[in-house]
Amino acid sequence: MSSRITLFNRELIIYIFRCSGWIGFLYFIGLIFALPLEILTIVLNENSEYVKFENLFSSQQMIQFVLVIGIPVLLAIFLFRFLQIKQASDFIHSLPITRRSIYFHMIGTGIGFIILPILLTGLILILFHSAIDVERLYTLADIWSWMGITFFMEAMIFSVAVLVGMVTGLSALQGLLTYILLALPVGLFVLFVANVKFLLAGFSADYYLSANINSISPLLAATEMKKWNFSRLIY
Questions:
Q1: Which has the closest alpha carbon to 106: 235, 231, 12?
Q2: pLDDT tens sequence across 67-125
Q3: By C-alpha distance, which of 120, 100, 112 is closest to 16?
Q4: Which among 213, 214, 234 has a CA at the least distance from the CA of 224?
């Protein structure tokens, strides 16, 4: 009996959720602690009228930063780790599905593990906004901006991590090399500017090193997400 190649394979999806679903759950729990629970604590505090947010990234900024730069890399490592484990690789490649479909299954579920916690957290924030007086803390526009910027940053880091994983084929080095590659543009820019000042008279290296250097690297840009405007990011 000939095998049938399908675009959607239930066994593969179950395997992915079994091996990597905990990362999406961990991400959702982290967002709950960083945003809804923090906001609820502020609202229930008697002195909450003195608390103001620049935007939603101001709530537990360090936790959000760690989640943004950590979760996509973890997903990329664990989603494609089957390539280095013979038993898992044999199982997945024995399924009636092409390698291209396997790749898109991994990418699709990885994006799903990123966007679903963001959507659920955004929904909770919208419910808070409609049921509790939190207008002084954030608006509906702040929610959409937070969701868009967070997803954009994580999708970009996830893409880089997958690329590094495909090139190296080693989980132990994938995370380290991903962060090195993300920080590489800053190092190259600093090296370029530091040498140009010796070639061009009057060239102000300090000006270029201090002006928007964080926007060159996604890692450094993640530290200043609260300054981003999603409408400017799109247009």
A1: 12
A2: 999 999 999 999 988 888 778 778 887 878 888 888 898 999 999 999 999 999 999 99
A3: 112
A4: 214
